[in-house]
Amino acid sequence: MIEHRICLSRVVNPRSVAVIGASDDVGKFGGRVIHYLIKHGYPGRLLPINPNRATIRGLPAYPGIGTVPEPVDVAILAVPVAHLLRQVEDCAAAGVGACIIITGKLADAGAEGAALQDRVLEVARAAGMRLVGPNCLGIFNMTDAAMLSSSLVLEAERVKPGGIGMVSQSGALMGTLVSVGLHHGAGFSRCISVGNQADLELCDFLDFLIDDPATRVIALYIEGLKDPARFAPLLRRARAAGKPVLCVKAGRSAAGAQAARSHTASLAGSFAAFEAVCREAGAVLCDDPAVMVQAADALDRLPRLPRAGMGLAVIASSGGSTVTTADMLPAHGLRLGEMAEATRAELRRWMPESHVHLPLDTGSFDDGTSEDGLSACMRSFMADPDIGAVVVPMTTQPAMAARAALFPELCRQGGRPVLFVMTAAEVGDAARQALRAADFPFLDRVADSLAVLRALEAESAGRDRAALPPPERPPGAGPAPALPGGALTEAEAKSLAAAYGVPVTRGVLAQDADAAVAAAEAIGFPVVLKGVSRAVVHKSDLGLVKLNLADAAAVRAAFAALPDIPLDGVLVQEMARGEAELILGARHEPGFGPLVLVGTGGVLVEVLRDVQVAPAPLRPADAEAMLRRLALWPVLAGVRGRPALDVAAAVDALVRLSWIAADLGPRLVEMDLNPILLRAVGGGAVAVDARATIHGDDA
Question: What integer pLDDT is reported at residue 534 of this predicted model?
Answer without folding.
Answer: 80
